[in-house]
Amino acid sequence: MSAVRWFRKGAEILALAGIALMFVFPFLWMTLTALKGMDEVHVFPPTWIPEQILWENFAQAWGSGPFLTYFFNSIFVAVAILVLQIVTGVPAAYAFARYRFRGSKVLFALTLIALMIPPQLTFLPVFIQMSEWDLLNTYLPLILPYAASAFGIFLLRQAFMQVPEELIEAARLDKASEWQIIWTIMLPMAKPVLITFGLFSFIYHWNDYFWPLVMTNNDAFRTLPLGIAMLKSSEGSIYWNIVMAGNVILVLPILLMFFMAQRQIIRAFVYSGVK
Amino acid sequence: MASVTLKHVTKTFEKQTVLDDICLDITEGSFTVLVGPSGCGKSTTLRIIAGLEKETDGEIWIGGQQVNNTAPGDRDIAMVFQSYALYPTMSVYENIEFGLKNRNVPRAERKKLIDEIAEVTGLADYLKRKPATLSGGQRQRVALARAMVKKPKVFLMDEPLSNLDAKLRNQMRQELIMLHKELGTTFIYVTHDQVEAMSMGDQIVLMNGGRIQQAAQPLVVYDQPSNLFTAQFMGTPPMNMFEAMIDASGKEVKIGNHPITKPLPANHLAALHSQRGQRIHIGIRPEKLQMVSHEQAPLSLVSKSDGFDITGIIDTREALGSETIYSVSTLYGRVMVKSYQEELLRVGESVVVYFPYVHCHYFAQNGERIARDAFFSTRADVSGGV
Ligand SMILES: Nc1ncnc2c1ncn2[C@@H]1O[C@H](COP(=O)(O)OP(=O)(O)O)[C@@H](O)[C@H]1O
Ligand SMILES: [Mg+2]
Fold first, then answer.
1. Are A82 and A28 contained in the same domain?
2. Which one of A16, A61, B40, B285 has the lowest number of neighbouring Cβ atoms within 10 Å?
3. Does ligand 1 have an atom closer than 6 angstroms to the CB of B41?
């Protein structure tokens, strides 16, 4: 290898390391802070490595509210939403991709418009409706409004449209029903897109703060982000180390997910052109 | 095994008529080839038989049953697609199994059937592989195995060999012919390649512009083309075609402005009697013309043969080894000559081209073949056909 190429390679690695650092630093700082004592959080200049590692910060954060309930609620709500979104999104996407029916263009345009409306615009009527149905103190206001995902329908439709028509025809000749075609042929082929969407949806709803904040007034149905926000709003000064410990608890499952499904995720992102 | 019959089948896509009153009888156990230029409606015909496309009008019969309203999966047919259409997320085994599963064949029997087919198609070692890891030829075999394992009454194939390289294509051609012999099932095979049609079919259905031009045995299509289109579609290079004029007496024939050197024989003139005073087309295949260099012409035996001739100059020559294709410019216009002679003629050489009468075809102004008696064929098995 020539000197120029060595130089280029070096510069490339350096640039990548810089970018990686930019993303990793906040996580690192959060984790380190979560392990420090309260007096060490405020020293200047700041220390890198905690003088003494206080694992009990996590226990304190966890114990300062019904965190097990929050944790369970978060998982339950995010998973329930994802399952519903797939159950409703797959047939809808299949219909948009494969059937020609009256009004399909208008319906699809409406779906795309729904993609552009932020929840801050819709929460009030939804809230009032939920309250009229007397559903406020249940999981339903958290789950039902997200039971269908415009984004999911859009992504899956793109994936289904890429499946060659002849494949579906071959399946018809093999005596497969429409449902079988969807679940045993189309969906396995759309797996990368499904994973992309699944991650997106799960992370979005796992992290969601606004909607649960509006829709819950009872600890029994609150989710993790609300619980962690409440760490901050307890009276007196803010215990940043405890807040950060809470945040670590919040992001840990997602980090674990990324580590476990790393290869799949990269494939999914490359495939869906998000990269 | 089953016959397939189309009665007055019409198909329109958004006002564009793609199939126009197709009437077709496909004999039980035949190897029928639908052939024609791209866009003529071959695939549409096949897809209507399969039930993948809904006919606009007409009746479809398979094995004595009208199937217009029968779902594709219930028509007892199997189809091999040009793209093979293998399920990419399933293994070879699962690909072959899928149709059986949906027909509720018990697991043990499925395994037995698949193992048998895998043996026949040489796929036994590949059953666990995914289609993406197979070569084009192997995928082709999986597609065939998937079709065969269902033991259908009719096989439909839409240009199944067109994605293979020339050598493999030839080999698969032979294998398909053998397969048809062994199974005895009705094959309906679509191709745009006339060589494939001639070599594989025992029946050829030649289509153009959504209509059937001719349906007959291959050599009948070759020897007695039903119209101008058929004459020029089959054979490479295509049949030479000349505009000619028959005088009012019905005796004299001119090609362009040039009377032919020897009058047509009496039986030909009789056949052309109804065309007197009109324009016709005279056709002759390049391989039926005979050509000698101008100096040798008087000595040549061919000059004694029964036919007319024209002098010309060789423009181009394609020596293909077994045969040579010349383009000759003459007073009649460009004439293509295919020769199997060992000695080659030179480009620029002055030549005489002989047109034996027995090989002349006549077509009326509207393109239809003008039938004549004593049709010549070197092939005992087809003379007298039609
Ligand atoms: N789904 C369709 N919609 C509109 N036109 C079509 C459709 N399928 C085929 N056609 C048209 O019908 C004609 C015949 O097509 P096809 O049967 O595929 O021809 P071939 O197989 O002989 O090449 C073509 O002009 C094609 O454009
Ligand atoms: Mg076609």
1. no
2. A16
3. yes
C-beta atoms of B98 and A174 within 8 A: yes
pTM (predicted TM-score): 0.82
Atom 18 of ligand 1 has which residue's CA nearest to it?
B43
Closest C-alpha residue for ligand 1 atom 21: B43
What is the domain-level CATH number for residue A147? Answer: 1.10.3720.10
From B12, B44, B46, B196, the mutation candidate for ligand 1 (largest count of ligand atoms within 8 A of CB) is B44
Question: Within this chain, do residues A126 and A18 fall inside the same structural domain, yes or no?
Answer: no
pLDDT above 90 (res B104): yes
Q: Is the CB of B191 under 6 A from ligand 1?
A: no
Whether the CB of A167 is below 8 Å from some CB of chain B: the reply is yes
CB B81 to CB A166 under 8 A? yes
Residue A248 covered by a domain: no
Whether residue A173 and residue B89 make contact (CB cut-off 8 A), yes or no, is no
- Please give the pLDDT value at position A83: 97
Say if residue A102 is in the same domain as residue A52. Answer: no
The whole-number pLDDT of residue B382 equals: 42
Measured by CA distance, the residue closest to atom 4 of ligand 1 is B13
Asked whether the predicted pLDDT for residue B380 surpasses 50, the reply is no
- Reported as a single tens digit per residue, the pLDDT across B343-365 is 899 999 999 999 999 899 999 99
Nearest Cα neighbor of B360 from B261, B231, B234, B179 is B231
Q: What is the pLDDT of residues B235-271, one digit of tens each?
A: 989 999 999 999 998 888 999 888 888 888 888 888 8
Per-residue pLDDT of chain A (275 residues; tens, 9 = 90+): 578 889 999 999 999 999 999 999 999 999 999 888 888 888 888 888 888 888 888 888 888 889 999 999 999 999 999 999 999 999 999 999 988 899 999 999 999 998 888 888 989 999 999 999 998 889 999 999 999 999 999 999 999 999 999 999 999 999 999 999 999 999 999 988 898 899 889 999 999 999 999 998 888 999 999 998 888 876 667 888 889 999 999 999 888 888 888 887 777 666 655 43
Residue whose Cα lies nearest atom 7 of ligand 1: it is B13
Q: For a pocket test of ligand 1, which of B10, B12, B43 has the largest count of ligand atoms closer than 8 A to its C-beta?
A: B43
Q: Where are the domains of chain B?
A: 4-229, 236-385
| Chain B partners within 8 Å of A189 (Cβ) | 88-89
* Surface of A (170-189) touching B: CB under 8 A: 170-176, 180, 184-185, 188-189
A24 with A109, same domain: the answer is no
> What atom of ligand 1 comes closest to residue B158's alpha carbon?
21
Q: Give the integer Cα–Cα distance in Å for A226 and A205.
A: 12
